[in-house]
Amino acid sequence: MPDFALLAVFLPTFFFVSITPGMCMTLAMTLGMSIGVRRTLWMMIGELVGVALVAIAAVMGVASIMLNYPQIFEVLKWVGGIYLAYIGVQMWRAKGKMAKLDEQSARISNGALISQGFITAIANPKGWAFMISLLPPFINVDKELAPQFVALLSIILFTELISMLAYAAGGKSLKIFLSRGDNIKWMNRIAGSLMIGVGFWLALG
Description:
By secondary structure, the protein is mainly α. 80% of the residues lie in helices and 0% in strands. The protein is built from 8 helices and no strands. Helix 4 packs across helix 6 (125-134) and helix 4 runs antiparallel to helix 8.
């Protein structure tokens, strides 16, 4: 298991990043309004599988570097922390617009919903870059790798599922809230501030 201190930082960090409006969350909200939360669960299955594959691929790459090139891992840890801070700055500068998605999904099949969620998760280059940069700083090289990866992956999938359920169930009310004033902007700034702080804490720790 990772250190509890690292888990205590990882959980809110990934939660705020996950809950911030993006393609997957907007897709969940749009489908929740158009076909209902129950059928939107099919999309969530595909999305979670995609996120798990991205995380596992990132972890395997990180583990290979960690075991064979420990010096490079230290560099990667620094780069990861700096990249987290960079993402935080970008979130602060975001204008707060919601992603636009096609809402005409009432007749889509369950298989197509799974595919839609899966493709959305694995086709996002920012998702890959984020996983590769986020995971290394939270790994303790002095402990077994597998239990740490399982714990981190469990947190990732749990927070993704809770966030998508919130967006799908929130429906029109959540859309009105996010579209009003600077609500998205402030959500981005809260998450961005956390990312900047965590990034520097991990890089310098």
